[in-house]
Amino acid sequence: MLVLTFAAEGAGNCVEVGSVPYVYARTARGAFVLPARCSHRGGPLHLADLDKAGVRLVCPWHGAGISATRLIKKGIPAVRWGNTVTAVFPVPADTETSTGHLPLSRDLCGMRAAN
Amino acid sequence: MSFTPNHTPFELDPARLSELALDFASNPIYLDNEEWQNTDNPYRRQLRPQIIKYLNFSTPLPKEDLLDYSALAANRLLATVYETDMMFLPKGPMTAEHWADFKSFYSSTNRARGEMIRPYLERHVFGFLDDIEVSGEWTKESLVAYLGRLRDQPSVPMASEKAIRESSDPKRAARNWLIQFAPDFLSEASPMIRNAMGYYGPVQSEWFKIIIDEYGYGVHESKHSTLFERTMTSAGLSPDLHRYWQYYLTSSLMMSNYFHYLGRNHEHFFRYLGALYYTETTLVDFCERGADLLTEVFGGEVDVEYFTEHVHIDTHHGRMALEKLILPIVEQCGEAVIPEIVRGFEEYRAIAQLADDDFATQVAWMDAGPQNKKLHDPVWKKVESGEVTAPVAYIVEPRGELSNTHQHDGDELCHIASGTMKFVSGYDSHQILEAGEGTVIWRNRLHGAIIESEECVYEIHSVGDYRACLS
Fold first, then answer.
1. Which of A95, B12, B176, B330 suits a disulfide with A91, CB 3.0-4.6 Å?
2. Do B284 and B361 fall into the same domain?
3. Which chain A residues have a beta carbon less than 8 Å from that of B144?
4. 3-state DSSP of chain B
5. Quick check: is B301 in a domain?
6. In CATH, what number is assigned to the domain containing residue A17?
7. In a domain, B138, yes or no
C-alpha cells in the first residue's frame, strides 16, 4: 500500500500514481479521491459535471457515467483536514509518483448545492 | 394506548445556555482569585463568571477563532465539568474551607448544571473538527498502512521545543511548558478509565492493561502522575492540582479536554482509538526529546524519569494500541468503524498542532515583554493625537486588585494614567508599568495584572491590530 499526502485544491492537487492521475473532488454529497482519467477512453474526469440528480459524474468526452456515491463509499480511502489529503493507494509502496496540478469543474469544487 | 409520548432532543436556546453557563460559573469556588495560584485546593478554579454574559457558546468556533477568549472560557468550564467525575483530595489536612469546597464541587447542583451546558461547550470547542472528512473504502490493510506512516516519520523537534531553546529565558519557558501538561499528567489516564467500564469483549481487557501501566501497577511511586510530580518539583514548581490554573493556555486545556470529550461521549469510542494511537506513538520521540530538553535547560538536577519511562513504555503502548486494540476491534465490529478511527487520529493531530503553535507563540509573547512595553509610546501617541480611535475602557482599581488571567480577541493598548501595575504575561513573566507607561497586548495571548499602588487608573484601548497603528 502507498500512502500519499497532497493538496485538496490549488497547486499540487493532482498526484500521479504509476500512470494514473488522481485529484480530490468535493461534491454536495461528499468528497472522494477521483481518478482524473475516464476508464472508457481516458477523458478528463476532473472536468466532469454531475448529472441533474447530482449522483453521477458525466465524462465530458463521451458521456460515460460514474457513480459519485460509489467513489465516496468504495473509492480510494482518504482523509482530508483543511487543504491536506492523505490517501492510501492499493499499489506497492515503491510505486513511482509525481505531483502536479489539474483544474476541477465547478461541480467537483463543491460549488453545487445538494438536491 | 391513548398516550403518545413526545420524545424531543435536549436543546437550549442561546439565551438559556448563557444563563446556565453563568449559573454554573457563579459557584463561589469558581470566582476570581486574589492570588495568582491556587494553594492545595483542587476544587478552586477561576471561571470569571462576570464575563460569561458577553460570550456566545451556542455555535462551533471556526478554526481561526479557537484561541479567542470564548474558547478559553469554554475550555475552563469544560475541564471543570469533566473533573466533577474524578476524585480529588488536597495533599494536606481538610480545613473547613476544603470541606465546604469539596461538598460544593461534588454537589448535585454543580454536576447537574455542568451536565446541561456540557454538550454545547463541546460543540463550541470541538465542532471545528467536523471539517475532517473521511471517504473511500477503508480496509484493515489500508488502515495499517495509514497508521504506519506516522511510526516511520523521523523525530523532529516541535515548535514548542524550539521556542524554549531559543527563548531569552529558557528556564521560565520550560517551567511554563511543564505547567501546560499539569492538567493532563497529574490525573493521567483518567479519561481512558471512562472506557474501562462496561462490557465489550477482549479489547476491554487490553484497554485495561494500558491503564495499569499508567497507574504504575498499583505502586504509587511508579504511577506516572507521581513521576510527573517529581519532574515539577525538581524544576522548582509545586505539583498541587491546578495550582497554576491561571497559567494554562486555551489549547493546553483543549488537549486534556479532548480525551475527556471522547471518553465521556461513548459514541466517539472508535475516535478515541485513533487518537490514542496518535498520542502513544508520537509520545516516544516527544518524551525522548523532552528529557534531553529539560536536562539541557535545568542541568542534571531535573528529574526526567516521567519522560524516560514513556520512551520505554509507549513503544509498547503504540504497538498495543494497534495490535491489541485497533485491529481486534476492527475484526470484532467490522471495517465500517475504520473511518471513525482515522478521524480520531486526525483530530488529535490537529489539536496537538494547535497546542504546539499556541505555546510557541506564548513564549514569544513572554519574551517580548520589554519590547511591548516600549511599543506603548508610539501607539499611545497615535491614540492621544486622535489618529487612531478605538473602543476604550477607563478603569480604576485599588491596591491588590488582581485581574485573573484572560486574553482578548484583538490587540489592545494598556495605558497607565496613574499608579503602578504589575502586568503578567505568563508564569514568572511580568513588566512593571508606571504612570505614563503601558504595553501593547497581543491578540489571543494569556495575561493578567495586579495593582501595586494605592490606586491605579488605566485605559484599555481595543486597537485591533497594533502594527496598523504604527504605519
1. A95
2. yes
3. 1
4. CCCCCCCCCCCCCHHHHHHHHHHHHCCHHHCCCCCCCCCCCCCCCCCCHHHHCCCCCCCCCCHHHCCCHHHHHHHHHHHHHHHCCCCCCCCCCCCHHHHHHHHHHCCHHHHHHHHHHHHHHHHHHHHHHHHCEEECCCCHHHHHHHHHHHHCCCCCCCHHHHHHHHCCCHHHHHHHHHHHHHHHHCCCCHHHHCCCCCCCCHHHHHHHHHHHHHCHHHCHHHCHHHHHHHHHHHCCCCCCCCCCHHHCCHHHHHHHHHHHHHHHCHHHHHHHHHHHHHHHHHHHHHHHHHHHHHHHHHCCCCCCHHHHHHHHHHHHHHHHHHHHHHHHHHHHHCHHHHHHHHHHHHHHHHHHHHHHHHHHHHHHHHHCHHHHHHHHHHHHHHHHCCCCCCCEEEEEEECCCEEEEECCCCEEEEEEEECCEEEEEECCEEEEECCCCEEEECCCCCEEEEECCCEEEEEEEEEECHHHHHC
5. yes
6. 2.102.10
7. no
B2 in any annotated domain:
no
Task: Supply the pLDDT for residue A115.
Answer: 46
Which residues in chain A (6-35) have CB-CB distances under 8 A to chain B?
30-33
Closest residue in A to B348 (Cα) is A81
CB-closest option in A75, A81, A86 to B146: A86
**Count of domains observed in chain B:** 3
Same domain, B276 and B333: yes
pLDDT digits (tens, 9 = 90+) for B365-378: 999 999 999 999 99
Domain containing B395 equals: 369-470
Confidence of residue B1 (pLDDT cuts 50, 70, 90): low
- Residue B316, pLDDT > 80, answer no
Same domain, B119 and B235: no
